[in-house]
Amino acid sequence: MAISLGEYNISLDSRDDEANVNFVSHAHSDHTAGLKKNKKALASTVTKDLVESRSSMSVELIDEPDCVQLLNAGHMLGSRQLFVQNDLYGYSLLYSGDYQMDEPVLAEKIETKHADVLIIDSTYPYPDVKFDDKKEVVDAIQFYARTKMEKGHVLFGAYAVGRSQELVKILNDAGITPAVDEKVARTNEVYKKHGIKLDYVPLDFEHPETSSVAIVEQSRLKTMRESIRARSVKQVFTAMASGWSKIFRFETDVQFNLSDHADFHQALEYINACDPKIVFTFGSNAKLFARHLSARGFDSRPLVNTSDVNALLLNTSSNL
Ligand SMILES: [Zn+2]
Description:
alpha/beta; 9 helices; Rossmann fold; single chain; binds zinc ion; CATH 3.60.15.10; 17 strands; six-stranded mixed beta sheet; 320 residues
C-alpha cells in the first residue's frame, strides 16, 4: 500500500515494491515490513531506535516533505500518523496506523486534525466491544500485583514492545520493581533513552523463583510458570494484559483489558474529530469495519486491494 507524493512514493506500514520511502507509523513488527527492502523512512526517532534495537534492520530517517506532517498517534511511544496537506491532491489525507483516543499510559497523546480523506486501521471493528476504563484497569493491575505478591509469585505476559513498558510503569507507580526478560529489557532501555523512567531488574532464568513480580513476552508465559513451579513451593499467579481480553480467553488466572488501540467507540470519536468526507478502512477487518461505519452514515469503503490507493484516491477526488 503506497501513496505518491511527487518525487516520493511512500509505502504505508507495508512493503510495496514501487515505493522509495516507507512511512513506519510505529515499531510493532507488523508495520515494519517495508524496511526489509528499503531503509529510508518517515518515522519518529523513537521508532527508528526501537526497530534497530530488536532487529538487524537499519533505518535511515528522511526529512518530512513540505506537504507532510507526522502527528502523534497515542498508540505507543513514538507512534505517528501521516498527514498530507491538500495542495498536492486538492484534498487533505490522514493515514492512521494503530492509534487510540484514550490517554496512553506512556505514549504521547493523539493529535487529531481535519482531513478530507481518512485511511484508518480496522483492528477492532466490533460495535459491541467496549474497552474498560483505563484508570480502572490500571488500579486493578496494581491491586492484583500488590495482593498476590504477598502470597506467591505474580507473572505477567504481554507484548514485549509497548505493552510491557506500560506494565513496568504501572507497577512502578504501585511501588513495585518487576523482573523482566531480555526482550522486554531491550525495549525498556530505548524508552529510558527517550526520557521515560522505568525501574526494573533482569529476570534470572536460572532462578526465576527469586522474583515476586515478573513480566515476560507472552509466548514465554507458560514455560516460565512451569519453571517457577518446579523451584518454589509458593503459588504462581498468571495474568495477561491485552485488548484482546475482551474477545479471547487466555490460559491465565486473570486477564486485564489493557489496550493501546481504539475500540469501535473511540474510532467513532476519532472519525468525528477528523471530520473526513470519506473513510477508507484497511486491515483484515476492513470490510466489517466499513459496513458498521456505513450503517452509521459515514461514506466508508474497505481498501481491500491495497496496491492501488492512488487510483482509488484520484477517483475519489472528483467527488470531494
Ligand atoms: Zn501496534
